[in-house]
Amino acid sequence: MLKTWDDKRILLIVGGGIAAYKSLELTRLVRKAGIAVRPILTRAGAEFVTPLSLSALAEDKVYRELFSLTDEAAMGHIELSRSADLIVVAPATADLMAKAANGLAGDLASTTLLATDKPVLMAPSMNVRMWRHAATQRNLATLKADGVAFVGPEEGAMACGEYGPGRMAEPQAIFQAILAALGDSPRPLAGRRAIVTAGPTAEAIDPVRVLTNRSSGKQGYAIAAALAALGAEVVLVSGPTALAPPPGVTRVDVESARDMLAACEAALPADIAICVAAVADWRPQSVGERKIKKGPAAPDPIALVENPDILASLSKHVRRPRLVVGFAAETHNVETNAKAKLGRKGCDWIVANDVSVAGTLGGDDNAVAIVSAGGVERWDRMAKVEVTHRLARRIVEALA
Ligand code: CTP
User: 193-399, what's its fold?
Assistant: First the structure.
């Protein structure tokens, strides 16, 4: 059975900074990966986010006061600090860093940090001058020497109108640092979102007829399942197939290429987009409202217009996923054609497949090449399931 993060817990200390709102998103990401979150909200933190929001996203009680009878009755600060695998401070304000560096214990957050023997990860957030101040840099050095891990801060425009280092790292970066601190995961795509297109599209001619192709959808479904098994949140945008959705995958059923594109765009933002669908390149220019009858009134020929290219659209999208992958089944000049396709579509990789090789089309084996700007990576002929898993692992490496 796949090991999950379900047995892990973090204690999240939310300090008082404008970046506290990002800790809500962080909480959502961490919970989605199956990690329990027990929040401590400092008094200043509560000026920026409400205990109710934090508690709702964490699905746990929010701890706030050192000397609260109810908090202490539920769980004392010593127990709190021991109940987690990792303590995360986000935002870690200059004040919280100073307290932790000097061993102060005047409130629940600092007491918990002093009472713990668990690893601590801090995501600093403060004004650039405060960050650069000798006192903060001293505290940073002390905390590092004490074994505290840091993520960020990032450089950029600040809420106060200044520019420089001090901005809290983005929730996704903190989340990845949390996973790294918790140790190796069998679910390395936890917290990542993937869109996979699969199957054929069906383009209406009239209410009863469609223009379609023979794609079974198996390849796309297998990739969706492999990414989900590695922990990704997968939206499978599927044309009509006879397949059941893989476990843990959200399937969005579509018919036409235009519906498929709209469903993909609605599923953004995403980290990964894998376009496996055999999208009809054309659709009838006009769709008959009624069934077209034989005879002189029947359109002859049926006029076609080009469909949108989903792979190219996602590759050029303002919210482009970090990794966009296309597939290409070719019968000749495989790598040359794949390279040209890569440039034309603007994706990161084309998984090129020589379907002229006996036994690949409709068979169990496949010989693919991964074509990217960096060159061509040829894979030996292997079972299609193995191709799928190797590709999923390659995606993990690319996002690492
Ligand atoms: N694709 C897409 N939308 C389209 C056409 C293709 O997303 N309208 C994607 C496919 O899912 C696949 C890749 O583009 O990942 C390559 O598909 P292919 O049919 O080989 O490319 P075409 O652009 O149609 O080129 P060709 O002239 O070789 O058919």
Answer: Rossmann fold (3.40.50)
